[in-house]
Inverse folding.
């Protein structure tokens, strides 16, 4: 990589566009004092991103824009472009030529362009560092800055040294990584604090959610058990109710039938009783028979009297009738009344359907009374003493009487037969009545029994209904609805099983009471908190991984830096000694890296909460942070480089710069009058050294030194015009000695 072209326009004294093309080797820029030579070095420094106005020899940024002169007005824009050959791809972009442009407007606006694309300063810096170009260091050594390195503090020198040894790019990466590490460390610490704060809440929520889940499980189990219990009970009670209902209906039906039967029997009885005119008929016939008997008695009495009157006075043919006294007649009448009374009793007993024994007793009484009457009358009925047979003389009246008696007998017999038949009929009827009465009583008993059964069944049904109602109320209270109970196919339960379920229900209810009421929103809160916690845990894990990865990167970079610095230090020291010896004709020069001195209070064992800080504290123990220079010209015994003369300082600096260039050549080097303080012989030696080094790097050298000019392949002359504008002239040495005006 090398410089191809520099174009300045409006930059400091270069009011007009001027272009410098460079070749390999040494390009010398010459010209009188104040012509604008150093402005070219400034332009290169500026376009490469220099931020220090002081380094650019100004006070404010607009000082780099052409400020005008007596004859030329000031400009509003300064623009510098630097064209780099990148065929070797030292700048890691896919271009063989790269043009860097920087613009500054008087209003303060500025742009960086890489191949005409706007870019950031940081990108530009990184690219140049990767190409081993450090604009802060030895690559552009401004006028009077040659001994800056020697006069700098050991800490400043270390920075310079990092650029010089090419580890700056790794240092930049390392610093970027450290920034990331610090950020990650802070994020990690914040995440840890947040997760620590969250832990007690999460633990509380976890416990509550466990309780909530236990509650839900218990509720589910309770519902199942309740469903089992109430479902089966509901089935059972419904079945019971249906059974009892059917039973009641059966009894009702039976009762209706029994009632009907009973009513029919009642009707039948009524009918039998109602149609019972037989007694009256018998009574009537008996009355008629009695009347016939009385009639016969009277007829016989009449016949007797008739016969006795016609044969002998005072007696009939068969018995002697002794007339009865009044007392005797009264007794007879009394006994006949008893007889009548007994007859009535017998009839009444028959009417009342009394039992046979009663009737028999009455009939016996009747017989005894009749015998009594006969016994009473017997003494008065003495048979008549037979006299000589007497021829009966028929008497018409007697005949009529006898005829009437015969008729009366006949009537009496007929009546007797009729009564006998009627009594038989009556007997049949009474038997039927008896039978019907028995049936009636049985039907009545059955009806009563069914009535009792029905009342009992209705009571049981009402009890079952009440139980059903109670169970329904309880089920609704326990299950919230009856829907689940209907149409279930749960098997019936034994009493033991029901008791077991009831115990289980009580136990689960007890457990729920112990768990207590919980806000169901806890679940959502727990999930959200757990989500945050998981997120933070994952974040901490990621951050730890990132942290470890960044630490590894830093360690790797440290290794590279350390190895490269050690290697470069050895190499630079060798060249430093070489060039120092060349320029001083002897002497000793050496660079030394010194370790950081760690104060007691910064003891890394006092660990911080920030893992990144601990890491740095641990690492910084091994950091080199100072670069010391020891330079002793021949024959001298110097304790410090501060006591070197101005020329000695310049020679030492040149020896060091040349050592760095030899060890780690930058793509190009700009040297602005670094040889100003050298005497003639040293100027020649310096020119020779440059010439030797120009095989390794490209030099743009601003010089008044003829020996240096002689080593240049290309020479630019700079002159100041009357209008205060720098003019550029170039001369290619060797072929022509003519100055060419580049404008
Ligand atoms: P020497 O050989 O003495 O070091 P030089 O050739 O290096 O001189 P420079 O320092 O490059 O000279 O240029 C200085 C000149 O540039 C001065 O004359 C100064 O007035 C002019 N100059 C600097 N800044 C501006 C500016 N912004 N506008 C116009 N001219 C400027």
């Amino acid at each position: 990589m090398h410089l191809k072209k520099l174009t300045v326009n409006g930059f400091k004294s270069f009011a007009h566009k001027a272009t410098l093309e460079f070749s390999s080797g040494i390009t010398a820029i010459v010209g009188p004092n104040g012509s604008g030579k150093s402005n070219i070095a400034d332009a290169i420094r500026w376009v490469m991103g220099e931020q220090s106005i002081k380094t650019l020899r100004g006070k404010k940024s607009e000082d780099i824009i052409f400020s005008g002169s007596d004859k030329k007005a000031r400009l509003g824009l300064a623009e510098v472009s630097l064209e780099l050959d990148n065929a070797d791809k030292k700048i890691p972009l896919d271009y063989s030529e790269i043009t860097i442009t920087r613009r500054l407007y008087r209003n303060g606006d500025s742009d960086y362009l890489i191949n005409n694309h706007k870019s950031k300063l940081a990108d530009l810096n990184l690219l140049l560092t990767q190409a081993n170009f450090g604009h802060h260091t030895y690559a552009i050594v401004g006028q009077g800055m040659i001994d800056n390195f020697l006069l700098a503090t050991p800490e400043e020198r270390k920075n310079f040294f990092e650029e010089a040894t090419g580890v700056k790019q790794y240092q930049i990466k390392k610093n970027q990584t450290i920034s990331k590490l610090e950020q990650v460390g802070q994020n990690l610490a914040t995440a840890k604090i947040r997760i620590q704060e969250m832990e007690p809440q999460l633990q509380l929520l976890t416990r509550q959610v466990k309780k909530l889940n236990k509650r839900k499980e218990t509720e589910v189990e309770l519902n199942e058990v309740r469903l089992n219990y109430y479902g089966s009970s509901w089935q059972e009670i419904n079945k019971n109710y249906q059974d009892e209902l059917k039973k009641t209906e059966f009894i009702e039906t039976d009762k209706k039938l029994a009632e009907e039967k009973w009513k029919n029997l009642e009707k039948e009885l009524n009918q039998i009783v109602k149609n019972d005119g037989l007694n009256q008929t018998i009574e009537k016939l008996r009355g008629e028979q009695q009347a016939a008997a009385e009639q016969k008695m009277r007829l016989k009495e009449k016949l007797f009297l008739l016969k006795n009157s016609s044969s002998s006075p005072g007696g009939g043919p068969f018995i002697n009738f002794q007339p009865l006294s009044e007392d005797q007649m009264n007794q007879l009448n009394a006994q006949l009344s008893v007889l009548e009374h007994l007859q009535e009793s017998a009839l009444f007993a028959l009417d009342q359907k009394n039992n046979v024994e009663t009737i028999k007793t009455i009939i016996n009484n009747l017989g005894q009374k009749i015998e009594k009457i006969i016994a009473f009358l017997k003494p008065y009925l003495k048979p008549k003493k037979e006299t000589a047979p007497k021829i009966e003389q028929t008497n018409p009246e007697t005949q009529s009487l006898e005829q009437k008696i015969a008729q009366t007998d006949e009537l009496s017999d007929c009546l007797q037969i009729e009564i006998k038949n009627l009594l038989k009929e009556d007997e049949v009827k009474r038997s039927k009545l008896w039978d019907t009465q028995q049936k009636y009583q049985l039907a009545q008993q059955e009806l009563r029994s069914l009535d009792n059964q029905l009342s009992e069944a209705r009571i049981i049904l009402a009890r079952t209904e009440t139980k059903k109602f109670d169970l329904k109320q309880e089920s609704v209270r326990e299950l919230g609805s009856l829907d689940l109970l209907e149409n279930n196919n749960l098997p019936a339960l034994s009493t033991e099983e029901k008791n077991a379920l009831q115990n289980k229900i009580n136990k689960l209810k007890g457990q729920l009471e112990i768990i207590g009421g919980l806000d169901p929103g806890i679940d959502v809160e727990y999930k959200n908190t757990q989500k945050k916690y998981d997120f933070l845990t994952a974040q901490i894990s990621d951050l730890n991984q990132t942290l470890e990865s960044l630490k590894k990167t830093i360690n790797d970079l440290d290794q590279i830096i350390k190895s490269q610095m050690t290697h470069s230090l050895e190499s630079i020291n060798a060249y430093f000694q070489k060039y120092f010896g060349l320029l001083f004709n002897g002497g000793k020069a050496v660079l030394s890296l010194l370790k950081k001195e760690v104060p007691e209070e910064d003891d890394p064992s006092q660990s911080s909460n920030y893992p990144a800080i601990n890491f740095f504290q641990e690492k910084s123990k091994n950091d080199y942070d100072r670069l010391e220079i020891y330079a002793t010209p021949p024959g001298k015994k110097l304790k410090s480089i501060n006591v070197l003369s101005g020329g000695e300082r310049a020679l030492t600096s040149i020896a060091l710069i040349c050592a760095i260039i030899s060890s780690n050549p930058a793509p190009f080097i700009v040297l602005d009058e670094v040889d100003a303080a050298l005497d003639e012989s040293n100027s020649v030696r310096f020119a020779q050294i440059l010439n030797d080094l120009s095989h390794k790097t490209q030099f743009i050298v601003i010089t008044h030194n003829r020996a240096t000019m002689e080593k240049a392949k290309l020479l630019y002359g700079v002159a100041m015009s009357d209008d205060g504008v720098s003019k550029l002239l170039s001369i290619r040495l060797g072929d022509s000695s003519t100055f060419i005006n580049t404008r």
